[in-house]
Fold:
Amino acid sequence: MAVFFIFHKMPKEKELCAEAVCAVAKVILLPNHGAPRIFYLAKKLKVNLLEHLFGQEWEIVPAGGATGEAFIARKDNEQKLFLKRNTSPFLAVLSAEGIVPKLVWTKRLENGDVITAQHWLNGRELTHNEMNGGQVAKLLRKIHQSRPLLTMLKRLGKSPLRPESILTQLESNLERELVAIPVVFQVISFLQNNLLLAECEELVVCHGDVNHNNWLTTDSNELFLIDWDGAIIADPAIDLGMLLYSYIPKEEWREWLTRYGKTLDASLEMRMKWHVAAQALSSIQWYKDKNRLEEMDRIINQLPNILEL
Structure:
């Protein structure tokens, strides 16, 4: 069976400046109005801007998410668009490559914000079992082989993420209290001792969070990988390791990788293990920062299994 290491992606949460929101929305904050009130006002302001852009015949509602930048536009229960504010130009390339739903248009508002609209497709996220399907391997291979995606990320200033940088950041960010946990210290030692073996010359565009929740299949059997805010240039083992360790029984890794187009050798196996271990430590610190201790403990308890595989 698969080990199921589902790590939480580190969201790029954006703090909102209360004074700026007040100036634009022309509201006065009372002393008992805290952060939730600020975010509510900001979200209402964004919705009003979008309704002005679309017209009264369209209904605009927030689509959820950590950043509050995504919306759904509906008209007469027939037309439906997915809107996002200030997305990267990377979205246009993802759309052209058929990796995300088709980009319909891009518009710039008077305040400088850029709004993108994508077709809304009826579908659902993949189940755990469906991650073992051939479509997933095929699409991930297409992503990793895409020259347009790699070229665009480089134009946007992305530099390759190397194991040495990952390890340095972990050593800097992990709190002493966590490092003192024997199994955490053991994982850090594993990363340090195998740093050279984790190096790879093959650098591709990696999604960074291939959780099944980010894979969407439509009613017409199209498959998309969404939520590209954390895209990086790195070893494909980052995506492959998270996916295989989380969803695929180890005895089926070789078969899955054959569908993807790779051979499972000692180098790839070590690199996947190295990156999964590093992702686990990052998740542990993130959960601790958020005071989500139960989830933190769950990842800590999974560390021995990572080292044994």
